[in-house]
Design a protein that fits this description.
The protein is an alpha/beta fold. It contains 14 helices and nine strands. It is extended, with a radius of gyration of 30 Å.
């Protein structure tokens, strides 16, 4: 038995494995096992993993035929022995004390799930600090001694980010429900896993620190190949809906689910073919969008979809709206500059008036001989 089992699906990551695997093995928290599932890589990933396993017995390699990240994670879950489970992506890396901080927080709070913040980076340059909104939801909170659940923060289960790699899970909790698995052969397979685990967790805790570095420039990553599988999101949404109904949670979380469905469909609209648009429009027509949880921007896109006949028309209307917003922004900036210019003119006129008053004053005229003499002496 170990304290943390780290699950790492690997597919053609030879360029990143040295950095990423070392970031796990060199963690300040040593009581770990690392289950690396090579998902039929055709590069040198498997060779690199085997080399690591020869030098560190904590790392185990499980080769499999290419079946996708879902199957890789599910297979690894059957092999782990840790008290806690951590899912890691093979092209990213962890800060040196990430697992130590996550484990201590989990133990201190007896958490089913620990959530933390992460960064995005590209070519070794950090782009964004992605802060979870949990801190805003529970302001002025000592998160070292604090837990919440889905009833304390209802929307959390239904909004992104959904990935498992910024969460630590208690194995006893994951073992409690057989439906805690990643659906195979679907993009965004981590979405149902996120929804299910957040809804069923009794205690969720949070670390307001950036412990994970997420790479966005790997051309082989799922996020960079999602456009090829444009129908998957509808299957993902259906899995979530079926789960809610099976668990008798649908009516209780109906508003949150509709928020989720609308947001996910609209989020996936960019870059999609017209076939996706038509399916999306039909699915959105079944949802009540009179929903206080939806942002103004999402509501606008929803209404634009419903009032458009094709993806081309929808994109055209979005572009017109974006140009309108830019024009409004420029108009505000021009108005602001005009006001500043008016203020400067008024200030300049006031200074000119003060200068004229000084030049025409008796004291200025009487002191002119002294100023003239001073100029002569300077020469």
């Amino acid at each position: 038995m170990v304290k943390i089992s780290v699950i790492v699906p690997v597919y053609n990551c030879e360029d990143y494995l040295d950095e990423s695997i070392k970031s796990i093995l060199n963690q300040s928290f040593k009581d770990i096992e690392v289950i690396c599932v090579d998902d039929g890589s055709v590069d040198d990933s498997l060779k690199i993993l085997k080399k690591f396993s020869m030098h560190d017995a904590r790392l185990k390699v499980l080769p499999q035929e290419n079946q996708g990240v879902s199957v890789a994670r599910n297979n690894a879950l059957k092999k782990v022995s840790g008290d806690y489970i951590y899912f890691f992506d093979a092209d990213d890396y962890l800060v040196a004390d990430a697992l130590e901080k996550a484990y201590n927080n989990a133990i201190n709070n007896n958490s089913d799930i620990v959530i933390f913040n992460y960064d995005q980076y590209k070519e070794d340059s950090f782009l964004n600090h992605l802060e979870q909104d949990i801190g805003k939801q529970f302001p002025k909170t000592n998160f070292a001694n604090f837990t919440f659940n889905c009833y304390d923060y209802r929307i959390r289960a239904f909004k992104g980010p959904f990935a498992p790699w910024f969460k630590l899970y208690k194995k006893e909790f994951l073992d409690r429900y057989e439906y805690f698995e990643f659906p195979p052969n679907l993009n965004q397979n981590d979405v149902p896993f996120h929804v299910k685990t957040i809804l069923k967790a009794s205690k969720i805790s949070f670390i307001p620190e950036y412990l994970y570095h997420y790479r966005i420039d790997n051309p082989n990553s799922i996020s960079n190949t999602r456009l090829k599988r444009f129908k998957d999101i509808f299957s993902i949404i259906q899995i979530v809906e079926d789960f809610l109904k099976d668990e008798n949670l649908f009516e209780e979380f109906k508003e949150e689910f509709e928020y989720f469905k609308i947001n996910r469909i609209i989020y996936e609209m960019k870059g999609r073919p017209n076939e996706y648009f038509l399916i999306a429009k039909d699915e959105l027509s079944k949802v009540n969008h009179d929903n206080d949880l939806l942002s103004e921007n999402v509501l606008f896109k929803f209404e634009t979809i419903m009032n458009s006949n094709s993806i081309e028309e929808y994109n055209y209307k979005l572009e017109i709206n974006n140009l309108k917003k830019k024009n409004e922004k420029f108009s505000k900036e021009i108005k602001k500059l005009k006001n500043q210019n008016r203020e400067l003119k008024n200030k300049n006129n006031k200074l000119k008036k003060q200068n004229n008053e000084i030049l025409n004053s008796k004291s200025w005229k009487l002191s002119e001989p002294f100023r003239k003499a001073k100029r002569i002496l300077k020469k």
